[in-house]
Amino acid sequence: MMGEMVEAANKGIDGKYDAVVVGAGIGGLYAVYKLREMGLSVLGIEAGDNVGGVWYWNRYPGARCDLLTIDYCYTFSPEVDAEWSWSEQFAAQPEILEYINFVADRHELRKDYLFDTRVNRAEYDEARQVWTFRTETGKTFEATYAVMATGPLSVPKRPDFEDFDSFKGELYYSGRWPKEPVSYEGKRVGVVGVGSTGIQIIPVVAQEAKELVVFQRTPSFTMPMRNHKHSAEYTAEIKRNLSAMRAQARNSPLGGVRPATTRPYFSLPPEHRVKIMESAWQNGGHTFLGSFSDLMQNEEANEQVAEFVRGKISQVVSDPATAEALKPRGYPIFARRACLDTNYYETYNEEHVSLVDCFKEPIVGLTEKGVRTAEREIELDMLILATGYDGLTGALMAFDVVGRGGKTINQEWKDGAHSYLGLMMKDFPNLFMICGPNGPSALANIFTINEQNVNWLAGAIDHMRRSGLTAMEPTVEAEHEWMDHVHDLSLNTLVRKANTWYTGANVAGKARGLTMYTGGFKAYREACQDAADDNWRGMVFEKTGVPETVA
Questions:
Q1: Could you say which protein family the record assigns here (predicted)?
Q2: Do 339 and 272 reside in the same domain of the chain?
Q3: Same-domain pairing of 136 and 179
Q4: Are residues 395 and 496 both part of a single domain?
């Protein structure tokens, strides 16, 4: 009878593995490498036709990393460190994608991937303790361990415009940009959205377009990037000191080497504070974030820094009405993503560039010829949608993930994402989430987070295999305790006071709440390590389907 059951279970299975990794981005590639190095059989599944994750899909004009390149890279490979050098302080998308491809080539990671394949269902078989992955191509795979490296920003959000499909011109999503070159020369171009993506797109498109119309709902705070090339001497210095810098990064709140200070804003006299802010503006990058220690806790300090930046907008933008419309109000500075730009505000001084304030003149819908606002029709040849993502939870809720007893992640997260350590969920045994909700996610260096998450799950799998255990999941008590901790931390930061994808406010009907760990990367890493060191505290383990231990 058992043989008949196994034979029936094997029917229609195209491959069996120790682990299946969903996604070929930063976290997915490292997960495949790490698990393979442990001796596991691994299959990676990726919807795109190559590696790169968010940098594969985001090919829009001006796409560039807003983290220092000395942070924005893997740390696991001495070979890559020795052979790769970044060309500039803030790398552009082509160079980042080239880097990720370089890592994939150097460690032969593509051979373990199935590309052009999208998972549409992952289901746990409780009796056999395996995950079954069904794909849109009709192939089915099984694995003991499911690693979801689907990314916090991988599901573009379609705006809810009337008559969306009626527009006859060129229409592009920033997050699904075509590989073929796009020309803006001689065209009337509209850009919807002024988050970090729109802020990068707008100055580049303005250089070629006959006319550029920017549709802005909520303006973003953005600082000058002040990008520059790396000299050979500086590159040599970086390589000599890389080990020490990375040790500092792992023990920092942001998982990187951004500037930081312990001085609160009001500990300095006003003239000293202004000098620091002027210096931060001139130095560029995220210098502002490290200028004062309490910007995300002290509302009065935050507002004074915000007003300084608003003043800079007036200094740059010549038209007073446009300058005023570009000034963010109603939320704390840095509560939304901290943007960096190159000539963003200067672009509005160009005669062929105009701004539509969608709070005063909202977009109603699209027409064959362009965009219909509450007041007029604006004719366009091209429309670029930089309208963001269904962040943090969108990718895992875009397909069916079914755990114990038929429970789905969609059901479990309908009132908000919950997990233990941002890594695992009760009733979803052996399912690991990388860089998902309830961890630091967008609030720290994504390379550092991904490596830490993968190392943790690799340690958990190694523990199970050495101990003869076949499955693990958190207890409900451990999950509740972690979520209470995440919630309590969120009350101490002004990040919660802005309507952003951080809080789910950009997607209609999505549960609201700040489901990111705001205690800093160092504290998060230590919490995860403490749980592992304490005999995997908070976990229940199984052995051939029978509960074995509760740590």
A1: Belongs to the FAD-binding monooxygenase family.
A2: yes
A3: no
A4: yes
Judgement on whether residues 261 and 300 belong to the same structural domain of the protein: yes
Residues 60 and 111 in one domain: yes
Q: Kindly state whether residues 26 and 175 are assigned to the same domain.
A: no
Tokens describing residue 350 = 């160009």
Give 3's pLDDT tier (boundaries 50, 70, 90): very low
Q: Per DSSP, which regions of 55-198 are E strands? A: 113-114, 119-125, 130-135, 140-148, 170-173, 188-192
- Enclosing domain of residue 456: 15-155+391-543
Query: Is residue 119, in this structure, part of any structural domain at all?
Result: yes
Residues 6 or more apart whose CB falls under 8 angstroms from that of 454 comprise 27, 30, 31, 34, 434
Tell me whether residue 193 is exposed, middle or buried, using C-beta atoms within 10 angstroms of its C-beta: 0 to 12, 13 to 18, 19 or more. buried
pLDDT digits (tens, 9 = 90+) for 44-87: 999 999 999 999 999 999 999 988 999 999 999 999 999 999 99
Name the DSSP letter for residue 396: T
Residue with token string 């082509």: 94
Beta bridge partners, 540, equal 473, 550
The residue out of 355, 389, 423 marking a domain boundary is: 389
- The CATH number of residue 458's host domain is 3.50.50.60
- Residue 288 confidence (pLDDT): 85
206 lies in the same domain as 335: yes
Pair of tokens at residue 316 = 């740059």
What's the whole-model pTM score? 0.93
Residue 162 lies in a domain: no
Whether 238 is in a domain gets the answer no
Alpha-carbon distance of 363 to 450, in angstroms, equals 38
pLDDT of residue 547: 59
- Burial environment of residue 406 by CB neighbours within 10 A (0 to 12, 13 to 18, 19 or more): exposed
Sign of CA dihedral 8, 12, 17, 20: negative
266 by Cβ neighbours in 10 Å (0-12 / 13-18 / 19+) ranks as middle
pLDDT tens-digit readout, 258-313 = 778 899 999 999 999 999 999 999 999 888 888 999 999 999 999 999 999 999 99
What does each C-alpha distance from 480 to 386, 422, 429, 502, 527 come to in angstroms? 36, 12, 17, 21, 15
| Mean pLDDT of the residues in the chain | 91
Whole-angstrom distance, CA of residue 381 vs CA of residue 370: 7
| Residues 438 and 482: beta-carbon distance below 8 Å | yes
Whether the pLDDT of residue 503 is over 90: the answer is no
In this structure, is residue 247 part of a structural domain? Answer: no
C-alpha span between 370 and 304 (Å, rounded): 40
* 110 DSSP assignment: G
DSSP 8-state secondary structure symbol assigned to residue 159: P
Question: What are the pLDDT digits (tens) for 115-150?
Answer: 999 999 999 999 999 999 999 999 999 999 999 998
* Residue found under tokens 């709140």: 253
